[in-house]
Design goal:
Elements (H helix, E strand, L loop, with lengths): L5 H4 L9 E5 L3 E8 L3 E6 L12 H5 L3 E6 L8 E2 L7 H15 L5 E5 L1 H11 L7 E5 L8 H16 L3 H8 L2 H10 L6 H11 L2 H12 L6 H6 L5 E6 L7 H8 L5 E6 L6 H4 L1 H14 L16
Parallel strand pairs: 3-4, 3-6, 6-7, 7-8, 8-9
Antiparallel strand pairs: 1-2, 2-4, 2-5
Helix pairs in contact: 3-4, 5-9, 6-9
Length: about 300
Amino acid sequence: MSGLDFARDGADWPLRETSRFVDTAHFHWHVQEMGEGAPCLLIHGSGGATHSWRDFAPILAGDFRVLAPDLPGHAFTRSRRRPDLSLNGMADAVDELLAALNFRPRLVIGHSAGAVILARLIAQGRLQPDLYVAINGAFLPFKGFGGVVFPFLAKALVMNPFAPRIFAWTAGKPTVAKLLAGMGSKIDAFGLDLYTRLLSNSRHAGGALAMMANWDLSRTPDDLARMPCPALLILGANDHGVPPEGAMRLAKAMSRVVVERVANVGHLAHEEKPEAIAAIVRRAAEEVGLVRPSASLGDNQTP
């Protein structure tokens, strides 16, 4: 399967000027880094990439040193061997990257499956942030019929070597637009073009399918219940992909958690209303002392 080429497919990639490539023992990573201040790590969800932070990350960069990678199997990050795209495998990969960069984030923000990866790293003591933020965290499996069929379908597709190509061939703009709308999200035309570019690439599509096929959420409720740091759960009220009610139930078992339900956004809340979501994050960061309370959003002056 041919992957995305940064010179060709990333010629107009959002925040391209902040991109660089980092080699670790098992991966050739594409990362974006910007801003100054306390270190902040952004982890995208399954099927996504750094592009999903295109409007959100620059706002945070007014107060934080922001690091955002493409996960293994996604976009421009390459594996030196067949990657382990399970939850633990992804956690190991992120840990490997952070060790290579000597990057110790004090603020961690994950979207969807990215939030689950970060929760696992914190539960294992490999991350010790001052604040954990989940944007529509995919903490629970699908319920009922979908809970049986979707994992089975993903595993069956991954077993077929032609499946990623078939998936990619069908991922035209109308199909991707319908997929995003099914998650309750409305994004701009450029965002739709970027998702179409990603999902119509067989290697990226294969990474997303393999991640779904190997995802085990059985320990995630316990990971959250044992969260040692303050947590912020941001929930899109219109999220049809990961309904907010599941996260709200899990929040009841967490000791230090704030839940913010945001109206008129779906699963891609940080792409739909980046300023509003960043403002919620900043208020939480003020509460734990990561940023100066008197500073306005985007003010990067040293306290």
